[in-house]
Specification:
Blueprint (H helix, E strand, L loop, with lengths): L1 E6 L5 H16 L4 E6 L6 H7 L1 H9 L1 H10 L7 H12 L3 H10 L3 E4 L3 H6 L11 E4 L14 E6 L2 H9 L7 E3 L14 H7 L8 E5 L8 H8 L6 E6 L4 H8 L7 E6 L5 H6 L3 E4 L3 H9 L3 E4 L6 H12 L2 E3 L3 H13 L1 H14 L4 H10 L1 H4 L7
Parallel strand pairs: 1-2, 1-3, 3-4, 4-5, 5-6, 7-8, 7-10, 8-9, 10-11, 11-12
Helix pairs in contact: 1-17, 3-4
Length: 380
């Protein structure tokens, strides 16, 4: 059996979700032939610029515009004619991907991005390509995930599943799995070694500030604000691939009662989260799912208008995360968590209760049963 997993490197979350399912499949079914590709490696350069640099530029420089576009495209299903025109336009830029999939001839395609169904839809020959199953990487519903080429959906919660049902998708074609995080988040971590590596003290609260894989946000402003809190604690910042942001953070001088550790792009988030008490982050679906899995008290701040704001609203409604809308509110909330141990412990417990750390395995195990679900589509 051959499975192809696709993602798009516009933001890091889609890629990490695909990598998580790939790793889970490798653990439970080593005999399955699994490949993971970034669609941006198989499209023309102009199209790649629009999807990757264009998105990052928008959310960095014109986040409100992105929020408007997100809202405009969430008004309902596209008409069949408009859907066909959009699919045809996108396919014309992705001939290398279509050639790749013809060569691989997979039995199933799993995707963590909504571009894939547009590329694989073929209205003249609907059974030309293998069944396609879509992994939704947000905590809120949006119409751009809905596409007639998708045979099945994996979603984060029952609220999204209900939205899909309301949109006309058969409820039996939607599985509430959670957002897939890497299996390594289920493994024990060497907390003492991690603290030693970053010169962290075990008896002082640790604050972790995240900016996403591409370093979106103004972490330096947040850190300067946190310096004003008159409590002993230690800070870890993760600036991602944003070297300019990392340099700004390195130039900060913390007061004597606070230690500051600045990191760039990291691959050991599971270890860093395990030694963190409080996390301040945007509400990216993947980042928050990892925080929940590790039982971190999570404060959502500076989320991008659109999918992240929707994620933040949902997570706030569950009580598993806190959402703040200003620097002053962030400062007050942090002080309360640092001075009220019961409040901090309760928030951590709610995070663990909402977490679905085995989501990647749920999806991987379902993929194993693809032959029974889509027998009429599979290659003999």
């Amino acid at each position: 059996m051959k499975i192809l997993i696709t993602s798009v490197s516009a933001g890091a979350g889609h890629t990490r979700a695909a990598q998580a399912v790939h790793a889970a499949l490798a653990k439970i079914s080593p005999s399955i032939d699994v490949a993971h590709v970034d669609l941006m490696d198989y499209v023309s350069k102009p199209f790649r610029e629009i999807y990757t640099r264009g998105y990052i530029w928008l959310v960095n420089h014109c986040p409100r515009l992105w929020g408007v576009l997100y809202k405009m495209t969430n008004q309902g299903r596209l008409s069949p004619k408009l859907q066909q025109l959009m699919d045809a336009w996108q396919r014309r830029w992705a001939k290398p991907f279509l050639e790749y999939i013809d060569r691989m001839n997979p039995d199933l395609v799993l995707t963590s991005h909504f571009l894939t169904p547009s590329l694989l839809s073929s209205h003249s020959t609907p059974s030309k390509y293998p069944p396609l199953e879509c992994i939704v990487t947000d905590y809120a519903f949006h119409w751009f995930w809905v596409h007639p080429a998708n045979a099945h959906y994996y979603v984060a919660n029952e609220a999204i599943a209900e939205k899909f049902a309301q949109s006309g998708i058969d409820r039996s074609h939607v599985t509430v799995a959670g957002i897939p995080i890497h299996p390594i988040f289920l493994d024990p971590t060497p907390d003492e070694a991690t603290r030693n590596a970053y010169h962290l003290k075990p008896d002082i609260p640790t604050l972790l500030l995240l900016s996403g894989g591409f370093g979106i946000g103004d972490l330096d402003k947040i850190v300067r604000l946190i310096f004003e809190i008159k409590r002993p604690f230690q800070i870890i910042t993760v600036a991602g691939k944003n070297e300019n942001l990392r340099n700004k953070l390195d130039a900060l001088m913390p007061p004597p009662s606070i230690s500051l550790v600045n990191l760039g792009f990291i691959t050991n988030m599971h270890e860093i989260l395990s030694v963190s008490d409080i996390v301040i982050t945007k509400a990216g679906g993947m980042s928050v799912s990892e925080c929940l899995a590790k039982g971190a008290a999570t404060i959502l701040f500076g989320s991008i208008p659109g999918q992240e704001e929707k994620n933040a609203d949902y997570l706030k409604s569950t009580g598993a995360c806190l959402k703040v809308d200003s620097l002053d509110e962030l400062k007050r909330t942090l002080f309360q968590l640092l001075t009220d141990g019961v409040y901090l412990s309760t928030l951590k417990e709610k995070a663990r209760a909402l977490a679905k750390p085995r989501a990647a395995f749920v999806i991987a195990e379902a993929a194993e049963g693809v032959k029974s679900r889509h027998a009429t589509f599979l290659h003999e």
